TrEMBL record:
PROSITE patterns: HTH_HXLR (PS51118). One of its GO terms (molecular function) is DNA binding. PANTHER family: TRANSCRIPTIONAL REGULATOR (PTHR33204:SF29), TRANSCRIPTIONAL REGULATOR, MARR FAMILY (PTHR33204). This is Transcriptional regulator. Keywords: DNA-binding, Transcription, Transcription regulation. InterPro entries: HTH_HxlR (IPR002577), WH-like_DNA-bd_sf (IPR036388), WH_DNA-bd_sf (IPR036390). Residues 14-112 form the HTH hxlR-type domain. Pfam families: HxlR.
Length: 122
């Protein structure tokens, strides 16, 4: 797969830039959160995030696996069975994801207002 050439290089000295580059896919944070609740099979994850297409969820799971945040175990049985679990680095980011989720819950009304203003503006 050929990666698109970047117009603006990643600032590798900035932790925020690195985090954005690795974790800010549309569903990656959700996937990490749900896998953090326990070992998950792909079908379970699709049920947890029904608005996400299977293709996108599978692509983001593959990316998280390649980047070392989750590990995948495939059981040689009919039908094949796959399970995802967090790795050490995946567990280490879970408190941050939980804190962001809690902050979003605690500031829900403000965030909804901001989003609605943006949608109405467009």
């Amino acid at each position: 797969m050929r990666l698109k050439e970047r117009k603006i290089p990643i600032q590798q000295e900035c932790g925020l830039d690195l985090i954005r580059e690795v974790l800010f896919g549309k569903w990656k944070i959700h996937l990490l959160y749900y896998i953090g609740q326990g070992i998950m099979r792909p079908g379970q994850l699709h049920k947890e995030i029904p608005e996400a297409s299977r293709r996108v969820v599978n692509m983001q799971l593959k990316s998280l696996e390649e980047d070392g945040f989750v590990s995948k175990t495939i059981y040689d049985q009919k039908p094949l069975k796959a399970e995802y679990r967090l790795t050490y680095i995946g567990f280490s980011v879970l408190p941050i994801i939980t804190a962001f989720g809690n902050w979003g819950d605690n500031n829900r009304e403000h965030l909804k207002r901001v989003i609605s203003q943006k949608v109405n503006f467009l």
